[in-house]
Automatic annotation (TrEMBL):
<dbReference type="InterPro" id="IPR018321">
    <property type="entry name" value="Glucosamine6P_isomerase_CS"/>
</dbReference>
<feature type="active site" description="Proton acceptor; for ring-opening step">
    <location>
        <position position="138"/>
    </location>
</feature>
<dbReference type="GO" id="GO:0006046">
    <property type="term" value="P:N-acetylglucosamine catabolic process"/>
</dbReference>
<dbReference type="GO" id="GO:0042802">
    <property type="term" value="F:identical protein binding"/>
</dbReference>
<dbReference type="Pfam" id="PF01182">
    <property type="entry name" value="Glucosamine_iso"/>
</dbReference>
<dbReference type="GO" id="GO:0006043">
    <property type="term" value="P:glucosamine catabolic process"/>
</dbReference>
<feature type="domain" description="Glucosamine/galactosamine-6-phosphate isomerase">
    <location>
        <begin position="10"/>
        <end position="226"/>
    </location>
</feature>
<comment type="pathway">
    <text>Amino-sugar metabolism; N-acetylneuraminate degradation; D-fructose 6-phosphate from N-acetylneuraminate: step 5/5.</text>
</comment>
<dbReference type="GO" id="GO:0004342">
    <property type="term" value="F:glucosamine-6-phosphate deaminase activity"/>
</dbReference>
<feature type="active site" description="For ring-opening step">
    <location>
        <position position="136"/>
    </location>
</feature>
<dbReference type="InterPro" id="IPR037171">
    <property type="entry name" value="NagB/RpiA_transferase-like"/>
</dbReference>
<keyword id="KW-0378">Hydrolase</keyword>
<protein>
    <recommendedName>
        <fullName>Glucosamine-6-phosphate deaminase</fullName>
        <ecNumber>3.5.99.6</ecNumber>
    </recommendedName>
</protein>
<keyword id="KW-0119">Carbohydrate metabolism</keyword>
<feature type="active site" description="For ring-opening step">
    <location>
        <position position="143"/>
    </location>
</feature>
<dbReference type="GO" id="GO:0005975">
    <property type="term" value="P:carbohydrate metabolic process"/>
</dbReference>
<comment type="similarity">
    <text>Belongs to the glucosamine/galactosamine-6-phosphate isomerase family. NagB subfamily.</text>
</comment>
């Protein structure tokens, strides 16, 4: 596990975008796993800027998203389908047939999850997975206590996760209670992973991730056993770790 400290959110976004762009150029038919939320939005902005300036082509790239809320219509402005269109897909030359998110609008959700797991296998697996990290250590929507052996499935969201996501909804009660998420074992099959973290709210979990042994109480801790993981985090997110441990660049 490699740790990279950057000064701020903008630098984090630039470094992450550079990783994606390099892969797209090196492997034009790559499968890229994408995350949502506030953390990767800046990365997608940089990708769009690069596409407009340098015409980096995504024509044969395939994408798979980590997760999607259960029960939201795709055109809902809180759905991750809407988020991805708004921040990235509508602005680059990615073919619609190569864009994949879990189907989670209507039952049977469990079958949708199984189908998504199979889809990822059929695509040949994920070349690069972009991750964020929850304040409780979740990756995707895999909450603390999720078995490391988990595959893509229907998951119940932790109250802290719903609280964190409430800012995207009119009120907390509107936040879905369940989602379809790639499983931890699914994520771990990715050939390369970058995990992004920004802001003071992420400082405690990054410190715990650094210090703690691999445990299902901190889902992200399993990443220590992956052969190619890079954490890109800004100074605020690394403040507690640096205070207690010193430099994290390694």
């Amino acid at each position: 596990m490699r740790w990279i400290e950057v000064d701020n959110y903008e630098q984090m976004s630039e470094q992450a975008a550079e990783v994606v762009i390099n892969l797209v150029k090196e492997k034009p038919e790559a499968v890229i796993g994408l995350a949502t939320g506030g953390t990767p939005a800046g990365t997608y902005k940089r990708l769009v800027e690069d596409y407009k300036q340098n015409t980096t082509s995504y024509e044969n790239i395939k994408t798979v998203n980590l997760d999607e809320y259960v029960g939201l219509e795709k055109n809902s402005d809180q759905s991750y389908t809407y988020y991805m269109d708004k921040h990235l897909f509508d602005h680059i030359n990615l073919k619609r047939k190569n864009i994949h998110l879990p189907k989670a609008e209507t039952p049977p959700y469990e079958q949708d999850a199984k189908d998504y797991e199979q889809l990822i296998k059929d695509l040949g697996g994920v070349d690069l997975q972009v991750l964020g990290i929850g304040e409780n250590g979740h990756i995707g929507f895999n909450e603390p206590g999720t078995p490391f052996s988990s595959k893509t499935g229907v998951v119940e969201l932790d109250p802290s996760t719903r609280d964190a996501n409430a800012r995207y909804f009119e009120n907390k009660d509107d936040v879905p209670t369940h989602a379809i998420s790639m499983g931890i074992s699914t994520i771990m099959k990715s050939r390369k992973i970058i995990l992004l973290a920004s802001g003071a709210k992420k400082a405690p979990i990054l410190y715990n991730l650094f210090k703690t042994e691999v445990t299902e109480d901190i889902p992200a801790s399993i990443l220590k056993e992956h052969p190619d993981v890079t954490i890109i985090a800004d100074s605020e997110a690394l403040a507690l770790l640096k205070e207690k441990e010193g430099s994290v660049n390694r």
